[in-house]
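Write out a record, fold above all:
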Amino acid sequence: MTKTQVLSEISENTGLSKKEVASVFEELSVVIDRHIRKRAIGQFTLPGLLKIKTVKKPARKARKGVPNPFRPGELMDVAAKPATTKVKILPLKKLKDMAL
């Protein structure tokens, strides 16, 4: 479904206008942003549906002479990677039950 289709279906089912539904979605994105941004809580839960959290991945040093997993017997160099922050979305029980 496109964003417009989602907004129109929710507005039909709830009796709200499309503008009101769009403003709810906009405010939801602001709340999520406020919770998962840098120096914030780092997680947001949409009750019953999903949990959004940030996961910090540490930096990795460069390595030389590592065995190549795709070509046995060969050695390869692995480049360094900086520390990053990933966003992880976990489904909660209610959402898992919907898929069954």
The longest strand covers residues 50-57. The helical segments are 3-14, 18-36, 93-98. The beta strands are 43-46, 50-57, 63-67, 75-78, 84-91. The chain has a mean pLDDT of 94.
